[in-house]
Design goal:
This protein has nine helices and 19 strands. The protein has about 425 residues and is an alpha+beta fold. Helix 1 packs antiparallel against helix 2. This is Stp1/IreP family PP2C-type Ser/Thr phosphatase.
Length: about 425
């Protein structure tokens, strides 16, 4: 088993929007007393993979430091804030590991550049910009080196400077919040199965055995741009954040995850227990978890309404995003897309990742059934993993109905062709 340990507020002028109710919550970044964090992160190769393509980051942006030495596991949130993230690489050979490492390195460097953020819009915009920059750099590296063509990575990254925790997501790695006894997934999987459920074309029961639930719709590095899903949580005292790759969420039920987070106090022990549980369930993928507990008088005690009202919430950035300390991408570094169709569905057992249908690993293993349950988007009970790992379908903003129809049409053609080829 391998372990990587690298790594109140006063109302004012900011605009955070609840996508469900459209109710603004205006706050400026001010911290009369600091927020305290107890945190840890761990990544494990699992029981089947030959090498680990996951990476994670735990960073104190004020000190511009990364790591999980003893002194790093208890932090006070400074003026630049804290950065926590999980990246799940794909692309075969060592390419997935390269992509996920590039992602955490570039996001960290972007987040420590410039002046400290002045408000919520600025820290949120900086997070989105950092993730987009990482995606462009990975894509550029893949174009320059054919052996890494098609590499990519998911990215679920959280940043905070006060009681607002911002989460930028690309792919299907997840963020959960435990508040009281309630565990809620506060990100939304960018996957085909989730899109079909939300479109009403697949029930949660059907999703449990859906053959193609390993298809993801976005990943950093598989095109020159991505659409970052930006969400936020207004933290309360005692909240616990879990970031994880699908090596955990695909193998361990949400109810079991909730019980571990609820009963184990030490983040280090939580990380160890969760990775052990995923390995005991089969360990069919790399397993990465980052856990942080939020404490301190700067955070209010949660009310019953805070507990029951916890949910997935979009954050609306102003247009255009505040320039302040953001550095615009260098136009000279932009590259053309891969000469591939916008949407690609592999014809034989679903390999993983990218527009070319590359696998995350060169291994030939298959995943067995894994399970999920609990609250929040995409938390629909036991899930059967298809062949190997998620594959990526770049959508570049195409309408959901068009994506679904093209995929369904492709699968229908495959089925008909297979029938006639196999017909005696």
């Amino acid at each position: 088993m391998s372990e990587q340990a690298s790594r109140e507020t006063q109302p004012d002028s900011n605009r955070s929007a609840d996508s469900a109710q459209g109710v603004p919550s205006e706050r400026k970044v001010e911290k009369p007393t600091p927020i305290k964090l107890r945190l840890f992160g761990r990544t494990d190769v699992g029981q089947v993979r030959e090498h680990n393509e996951d990476n994670f980051i735990v960073a104190d942006l004020t000190k511009a430091s990364r790591g999980l030495m003893e002194t790093d596991r208890n932090q006070l949130v400074g003026e630049r804030g804290v950065l926590l993230g999980v990246c799940d690489g794909m692309g075969g050979a060592a390419a997935g590991e390269v992509a996920s490492q590039l992602a955490v390195d570039i996001i960290f460097q972007k987040m420590i550049s410039g002046e400290p953020p002045k408000d919520h819009d600025e820290i949120a915009a900086r997070l989105v910009h950092a993730i987009e920059s990482a995606g462009l750099r990975i894509f550029s590296e893949a174009k320059l080196d054919r052996t890494r063509r098609g590499m990519g990575t998911t990215s679920t990254v959280a940043a905070l400077v006060d009681d607002h925790l911002f989460i930028g997501q690309v792919g299907d790695s997840r963020a959960y919040i435990l508040r009281g006894d309630r565990l809620v997934q506060v990100t939304r999987d960018q996957s085909l199965v989730n899109q079909l459920i939300e479109a009403g074309q697949l029930t949660e029961e059907e999703a449990e055995t859906f053959e193609h639930n390993n298809i993801i719709l976005q990943a950093l590095g598989t095109s020159d741009s991505v659409q970052v899903d930006l969400t936020f949580v207004e933290l309360k005292r005692g909240d616990t954040l879990l970031l994880c790759s699908d090596g955990l969420s695909g193998m361990v039920r949400n109810e079991e995850i909730r019980e571990v987070l609820r009963t184990v106090d030490d983040p280090l022990e939580i990380c160890k227990t969760l990775t052990d549980r995923a390995n005991q369930a089969g360990g069919h993928d790399n397993i990465t978890v980052v856990v942080s507990k939020f404490e301190g008088e700067a955070l209010p005690e949660p009310t019953e309404e805070d507990i029951t009202g916890l949910r997935y919430r979009k954050y609306q950035l102003p247009e255009p995003m505040p320039p302040s300390s953001l550095s615009a991408p260098d136009p000279s570094r932009r590259v053309k897309e891969l000469d591939q169709p916008k949407i690609s569905v592999p014809l034989t057992p679903l390999p993983s990742s990218s527009s070319e249908g590359h696998r995350r690993e060169s291994d030939s293993e298959r995943r067995e059934d894994a399970s999920k349950d609990g609250e929040g988007p995409s938390s629909y009970g036991p899930r059967s993993h298809g062949s190997d790992d998620p594959i990526h379908i770049p959508t570049d903003g195409a309408p959901q109905w068009l994506i679904v129809m093209m995929i369904v049409s492709a699968l229908a053609c495959i089925t008909i062709a297979g029938y006639y080829l196999l017909k005696p």
